[in-house]
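Hi R.,

Here's the chain you asked about this morning:
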Amino acid sequence: MLTIRNLKKSHGGNTLFENASMQVNYGERVALIGPNGAGKSTIFSIILKKQEPDSGTVERDEWTMVGFLPQEAEALGNETVLDIATGRAGEVPALEKRLHELEKAGIVDSAEYLEAHAKHEALTNTKVDAKAKKMLVGLGYRDGDFERPAKEMSGGWVMRAHLARLLVMEPDLLMLDEPTNHLDLLSLLWLQNYLKTYSGAVLLISHDREFMDEIVETVFEINEKKLLEWKGNYTAYLEQREAAYEQQNAAYKNQQKEIASLREFYDRFRQVASKASQAMSKLKQIERMDIIEKPTAPKKPFRFIIPQPVRSGARVVSLENIHMAYGDHVVYRGLTLDVERGERTVLVGPNGSGKSTLMKIMAGVLEFQKGERKLGLNTKIGYFSQHRSATLDAEKSVLQEVMDAAGTLSENEARGILGSFLFRKDDIYKKTAVLSGGEKTRLNLIKFLVDPPNLLLMDEPTTHLDIHTVESLILALEHYEGTLVFISHDVHFIRKLATKVIHVNNGTVLPYSGGYEYFLEKTGSLGNERAALTSE
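And the predicted structure, written out as tokens:
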């Protein structure tokens, strides 16, 4: 289906990768991984013919339909959610225009014409609306959202509509760049289950290790300008990579010992007449060797000790008889909930059930109509919202934000922590106003970790983070002695941290005093997470 041979690409004199080869077969599920800036999105752009490689080739079967989901997309006009999901907004008119141009030029047997025709046919058949609505519901939309103007919705919801459109088309090769970034847990699980039985091939870039474990069967890693192939899912890749490193490192050390021994013999006897020829043979033996390069150790998550917060009272925050409504839409009626010191609680439930609203009430940033919110003794709250930029000073540099967050931190310590969260060299002098979404997420995380509150409320903290940064965050939070309440769509993150689950649904909150597996077991849905999360 797709074959990449000996690809090379450089940017500004910096080689991203060279001699890169990859093959994706029909029905195969493949992950492309590597650190930020390694060239993952560049490979996608070359496959999509948006960039040209310096050398090498990309070959695609001429009848292959390709669908691509970028990381970001916005509504452009007054199109509805359903208009996007069916392609009526933008894609169908563009396809019709291109097909007309190719027909006028007499180019009707080209790969481009065949692909455009197949896409147009998929988006204009009589069942397209019903199919689009099915995909939209799976991705978290309600029936009443279908005719809403997309511009009224966040960028994340617009992305879901574009993803629905791709699934409606059912391309032979589905290319997804960080598809889970804008999904909640329920829609992520739906997509995960859908892709398991998807008839086409899937090539994805993702930071969600559990998502990759459930879906992919081959991993291609960009590492030190090389593209390496590993069979199996992400966990299998980690195991194989560690074993390969140990094997190559042992071979490297053994060869270095042999070289040292041969060179020692040469240096010792090269001027001894009776041994000179033998000494020279040792030197030639070294020259004939295939020298084994010293392997680079696999990157490990960064570990640092976060300062422990002031101890709070046994009850950290209490909500009593809370009534909360947005206009006529009642979210909570008579809600009562206690959060105890030391709990690490994840809020789960369907989209729109009130998880973020509950967290805002706890944080004290949302006014409710009735009831009482009580903070416990010495409770200090830190609220990590989905709107990262609101907590940053646009005029401050990255380094200034961190230094000001923890007055006892030295500049070298701040630089070390920033470097571990991928702020390198001149990055630390950037104004926060120009940071990307991922950079703002990382900077806010650092601010919380260097001066942690004793009640940490986190709404989707892993969005836009790469795998190594997520692992570093997990390690830091595992040693955090305060109280944690969080919402996340990252199942690996949930499994690692949650000691308690609160199921939020239809205005009710039901606590389960155990981890995520315990919650699934108690709801009778260990093999069916979707059922557990939607059950009433």
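The chain has a mean pLDDT of 89.

Let me know if you need anything else.
M.
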